[in-house]
Recover the amino acids of this structure.
């Protein structure tokens, strides 16, 4: 039996309220991300965030417990965008070694950008705490590294196909490469010349990738 007009109206009002609530939350996160990037966590006040988002402080507290909670959501949003860009770079390549190079290039581009440098690298660990910071990285950039390592290990021209099926070995490889990338990313973000630092990192890690690929190709030739 069709719903009456009076039954439809409450649902329509709820839908509009939900849309408005979601838009308010997004505006708060967007403006907080911008302010955290420009000023840093310590110098950004909630008054500045609500003024920029053009909402009341009551609206902010409806969505978030406080500044740290706003920062956590901004941090997750920046990490998610970074992971999406790296994943897109990986998906654009078929050869696993090209995936590794493309992923490296995308990562080095991301870490030079102001919002990633400030929110993820500089303020993230101190504001979120080490455990929460690492958990977020596990879900985003570390997952991308694991995909790269799995592709390199499991391909016909990979290092050791059986290792791709060994979750502990896969995790070990991924952890080693992720540690190297994390250190490299920090070196880039803290450098007085991030672009030059990124170029050095890309050359160094690119040389390692080329060496591993040459080793595999040599084994294939001998076989």
């Amino acid at each position: 039996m069709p719903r009456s007009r009076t039954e439809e109206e409450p649902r329509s009002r709820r839908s509009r309220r939900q849309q408005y609530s979601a838009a308010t939350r997004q505006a708060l996160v967007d403006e907080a991300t911008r302010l955290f990037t420009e000023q840093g966590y310590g110098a950004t006040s909630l008054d500045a965030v609500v003024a920029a988002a053009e909402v009341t402080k009551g609206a902010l507290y409806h969505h978030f417990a406080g500044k740290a909670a706003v920062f956590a959501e901004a941090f997750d949003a920046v990490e998610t965008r970074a992971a999406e860009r790296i994943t897109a770079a990986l998906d654009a390549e078929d050869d696993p070694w090209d995936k590794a190079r493309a992923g490296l290039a995308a990562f080095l581009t991301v870490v030079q950008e102001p919002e990633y440098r400030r929110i993820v690298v500089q303020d993230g660990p101190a504001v979120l705490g080490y455990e929460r910071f690492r958990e977020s990285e596990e879900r985003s950039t570390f997952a991308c590294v694991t995909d790269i390592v799995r592709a390199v290990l499991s391909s016909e021209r990979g290092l050791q196909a059986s290792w791709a099926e060994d979750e502990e070995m896969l995790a070990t490889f991924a952890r080693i490469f992720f540690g190297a990338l994390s250190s490299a990313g920090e070196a880039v973000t803290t450098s007085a010349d991030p672009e030059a630092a990124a170029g050095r990192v890309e050359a160094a890690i690119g040389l390692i990738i080329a060496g591993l690929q040459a080793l595999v190709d040599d084994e294939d030739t001998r076989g």
User: Anything to note?
Assistant: The two ends are 73 Å apart (CA to CA).
